[in-house]
Amino acid sequence: MLVTVKALLDEAKRERKAVGAFNGTTLESIQGIIRAAEELDCPVILQHAQSHDTIVPMDEIGPVLLFYAGRAKVPVAVHLDHGSSFERCVQAIRLGFTSVMYDASGKEFETNVRETAEIVRIAHAAGVSVEAELGHIFTSEIVAGEGTEADSAADYEDIQDIYTDPQAAKVFVERTGVDSLAVAFGTVHGVYLTEPKLDLPRVAAIRDAAGIPLVMHGGSGVSDEDYKAAIENGICKVNYYTYMNTAGGRASVEYWKDGEKPLFYDQMALAAAEAMKEDVKRAMKVFQRK
Q1: pLDDT reported for residue 207
Q2: What parts of the chain have a pLDDT lower than 50?
């Protein structure tokens, strides 16, 4: 059943849970995500990240995401992750995505406000939810397909300059009308090389100031305890991809290790889909407190 992200996150906010948002870059990963959601009777968000256009373009994978969302037995939203332009967001809306993220977090605050507000105006007219980002989220050295430069807290003189400021978030939400906000509080896109140190009180302060569902990017590698604390403090959507993708990769390696198995790609792909499904289920149970 195809729904908007706003519908899912408003409910998650009331119940102090979070909805998992998983990037579907292949047919097998999409099938694994949907099967996980159905087996747990759990809502889910299927995403296409703009950075994954190098794997499969949005105009090719978008209809597949929408097909699986529409026939699923659970509520499913289809979301554009990290859309970098007006044109890309409009393309997603025209394809039938029920949510878009416009990411102008690397621009000046006033520019971010102005451009995000315009995307909100257009998307809301079409019944589509909008996510934005305020602050800077780190990027690991190991991020498959991202094509972005790595950085960490050590690269900045004052971490307060890049973490999301609660009062700035309040003003941003009031002036743009966004439905959800991705916030920076110490998470990292990609594979963690060291244990993350999260500023969880900041999340609660942003929640109280902004009043809308908050989003955690760079969710892979966070401990179950930190996930639960972040969700209790206001996180309602968790982006999760790298570790799911790794689970599929490891299953593929294990499949080929068995010299007795036939060298059939489709059988290896099914093994990868099963592994991704199980990893998604594990994450969903944490996010939904099942």
Answers
A1: 97
A2: 139-148, 150-158, 190-194
Q: How far apart are CA 204 and CA 199, in angstroms?
A: 10
Q: Which helix (H) or strand (E) holds 208?
A: helix 200-210
81 as an active site residue: the answer is yes
The count of C-alpha atoms lying within 13 angstroms of the C-alpha of 129, restricted to the half-sphere facing its C-beta, is 23
What pLDDT is attached to residue 281? 98
Distance of alpha carbon 214 from its chain centroid, rounded? 11
pLDDT recorded at residue 160: 53
The C-alpha atoms of residue 135 and residue 146 are separated, in whole angstroms, by: 19
Taking the C-alpha atoms of residue 119 and residue 110, their distance in angstroms, rounded to an integer, is: 14
| CB crowding 168-189: b at 16 or more within 10 Å, else e | bbeebbebbebbbbbbbbbbbb
DSSP structural state of residue 2: B
> Distance (Å, rounded) from C-alpha 150 to C-alpha 129?
30
| Alpha-carbon span 107 to 110, nearest angstrom | 8
Report how far residue 77's alpha carbon sits from residue 19's, in angstroms, rounded to the nearest whole number: 10
From the candidates 81, 103, 165, 226, which is the catalytic residue? 81
Residue listed under structure tokens 């003003």: 171
| Contact by Cβ (8 Å): 213, 180 | yes
Give strand pairing partners of 282.
Answer: none
